[in-house]
Amino acid sequence: MIAIITGDIINSQNTDSELWLPKLKNLLGSWSSTPENWEVYRGDEFQLKCNVDEVFSKSLMIKSLIRTFENLDVRLAIGIGNEVFLSEKITESNGSAYVNSGRLLNDIKTEGRTLAIKTENDKVNRDLNILFKWASIDFDSWSVATAEIIHRLLTNPELTQEELAKELNITQSSVSQRIKRSNFDLIQETDLFFRKKIAEL
C-alpha cells in the first residue's frame, strides 16, 4: 500500500510563482527524488508518493508552507491503495492509489473542500473525512504567522521555543502564544489518530 497526494495551488494565478514554487520544490525534494516520486506539472499542480503513515503530516507541511504566502492556499487529495505500474515519472505510474487521489481532487474542487482522503475502506474514508472537514475549518484560516510557526515545528520538531524566537526575531513569549493559537498540540494528536486509523486498512 502507498499514499499519493495530488494537489493544486489555490489563487496561483494571482501570485508570482517565483515566490512559492522554489520553496515547494525544495520541500518535496527534501523527501524524495523527482520525477519518479514527485512532480510539479501544469504550473500549479503536483503529485507526491509517500509512506501511508506519513501522508497526513506531509500534507500539513505542504499546507503550512503554502499558507505562509499571503492569499495562497492548497487543495490536497490523499489517495491510498496499490501501485500496479511504476514508471520513471510519477504522473505516468498507475494503481488504485493514483486513481483514488486524482479523482478525489476533482471531487473536492467541486465541493469547495481543501483536504480529503480516499482509501479502499468506506468506513475509514467516512471517519477520516469527517475529521478532515472539522480540521480544515482551522487549517484554512491559518494566518501567515501561524502557518510559519506550524511549518517550522513540523519540519524541525527538535526546535526549541528559544531557537524559534531567534529565527523569527520575536520574543519567546510571542512564540509560546503563537504555538497555543495554532492548536499545535491538537495537530499532533490528530496525526497520531490518523496513523492509528490508517493501521486498520
Compact overview of the structure:
The protein has 201 residues and is α+β, with helices and mostly antiparallel strands. 52% of the residues lie in helices and 16% in strands.
Could you please describe the fold and organization of this structure?
It is a single chain. The chain has helices spanning 17-29, 55-66, 96-111, 122-139, 144-155, 161-168, 172-181, 184-198, and strands at 2-10, 38-41, 45-50, 73-81, 115-118. It is of the alpha+beta class and 201 residues long. A 5-stranded mixed beta sheet has the order 2-3-1-4-5, sandwiched between helices. Helix 2 runs antiparallel to helix 5 and helix 6 packs across helix 7. The protein is globular and about 50 Å long. The mean pLDDT is 96. This is SatD family protein. InterPro entries: Cro/C1-type_HTH, SatD, WH-like_DNA-bd_sf, WH_DNA-bd_sf. It comes from Kaistella montana.
Topology summary:
Elements: E1 2-10, H1 17-29, E2 38-41, E3 45-50, H2 55-66, E4 73-81, H3 96-111, E5 115-118, H4 122-139, H5 144-155, H6 161-168, H7 172-181, H8 184-198
Parallel strand pairs: 4-5
Antiparallel strand pairs: 1-3, 1-4, 2-3
Helix pairs in contact: 1-2, 2-5, 5-7, 6-7
